[in-house]
Amino acid sequence: MKRILRKYLTGFALCLPLLAHAAGDEIVVGQAIDLSGPNADLGRDYVAGIKTYFDVLNTKGGINGRRIQYLVRDDHGQADLSVKAVAELIGQAHVSYLFGGVSDEVTRAVLNSADFKRSGLTLYGPLAGADYQKNDRVLFWRPSYQQEIRHIFSHFDKLGIKDIGVVYQESAATADAYQRLLEQMKETGIKLSGTVHLTSDQKQISRETAALAAAKPGFVIMVADTVSAGVFLKEFRRLAPQTFVAGSSLTNLTTLRELAGGKAVEWTVFSQVVPNPGIGSSPIQLEHLNMMRKYRDEPVSALTLEGFAAAKSWIRLLQPGKRIAGQSEYTIPGGGFDIGGYMVGETANSNHLSNYVDIALFNKASGLTY
């Protein structure tokens, strides 16, 4: 209970701006993100990592003497509320830079909103992975769903697995990931053992889950939101307790375990877009660990490291001096740049800065083993 209360108080505190030295002397950064909805754990951890890096910079005097004022608004994971929050950040808070929220549904809604289009801003670092056009005014830190899916397939291909089951929840948030999955299956020639369609028809789900378990696929890949994935996993594990089940890096692992149970999440693996956040084997990992201990009273996670790395990358991308009207916010150095043992921005003509993907296993201690 104390841990849950602390996390919610932390979420509230993150909605408050950092204090600026003097009016007009700060760089105002805004973000609308889920802090209390279905992906609150992801949002809160991501913001904690970003805020930690900004705290470090402000302690050192900011950027060329200008402190960062970080304004975070809770959109509860809802597209319409995210659009409203972004409009307030642009129109009333007059942010100069805008970080993104969680999910492709929210991201698309913001990109298509009138206030965002008029702003001339670029949406930076949303926790989403669909393929967007280069001119969509969005710049991702993380790799795409396609890259995550390819890595998952590559991992199981090394184990000699050639047949899979697919768990799919049809929605705006999962459409792109599902399309990329179909493309990857076609490209690799992998066999489909069966599909579970996560709909409102529980009897249908039960029938399809039983059929999939009986087919004994080499592994199962889930393209669904965390709640639906948790409901499926709980039932599937009664029938197939030791079949590998795979998910993406945007699965809310805390919620998944609560819904499915500790035993059910064994034999599940997840793609990860940052290295192990719990060890200091590279400068960025060590810096993140040390600064989280110094500035935050909460455990590190893949999302706190991703936020920290995204913020550190953001600083490197900024145009020098004060931004003027019509000037692009970001310049990506040719050949990319090193953020502490990891190169980002290496791929030309891409709106994804990082190509890093790893695989982690959900262990019995409710953590990830890389």
Automatic annotation (TrEMBL):
UniProt keyword annotation of Signal present: yes
Residue ranges crossing the lipid bilayer per the database entry: none
A Pfam family recorded for this sequence: Peripla_BP_6
Signal peptide positions on this chain: 1-22
Keyword entries, A-Z: Signal
PANTHER family to which the protein is assigned, alphabetical: BLR6548 PROTEIN
Sequence similarity: Belongs to the leucine-binding protein family.
The protein, known as: Branched-chain amino acid ABC transporter
Organism: Collimonas arenae
Lineage of source species: Bacteria, Pseudomonadati, Pseudomonadota, Betaproteobacteria, Burkholderiales
